[in-house]
Amino acid sequence: MPCCSSSRAAKLILTVLNKKPSADEKILFTQDALGGFGTIALMLVYMLALEPVGFIISSTVYLFVQMMLLSDKTNRKPVLFAIIAVLLPAAVDALFVYAIKMPLPVGILGF
Q1: Which domain holds residue 102?
Q2: Beta carbons within 8 Å of 95's beta carbon, 6+ residues apart
Q3: pLDDT tens-digit series, residues 38-77
Q4: How far apart are the C-alpha atoms of 61 and 74, rounded to whole Å?
Q5: Of 27, 53, 102, 111, which cross-links 49 as Cys (Cβ 3.0–4.6 Å)?
């Protein structure tokens, strides 16, 4: 039985290694890589901006840009993304300030 499993695994590996990606797969890989590396870069900028700029402003910008980065042209809705990007950080800030009594960084504008 182990011999059959080994031969099946070997065939699977050879099939995967010999497969040439189509043009659509190359485009999808490029988009995924851009989304992945863009997310990492965006998170680094967010971390650096959180303290000096403040939670609400930096989170609003981060969320909007992140949603635009990860959406494709068919489902990109900037107005909806802007509404979500404004309301969600405001709600989280209100939760932390009023319910948990632990203020988040206020930044340069004081809110």
Answers
A1: 35-111
A2: none
A3: 999 999 999 999 999 999 999 999 999 999 999 988 999 9
A4: 22
A5: 53
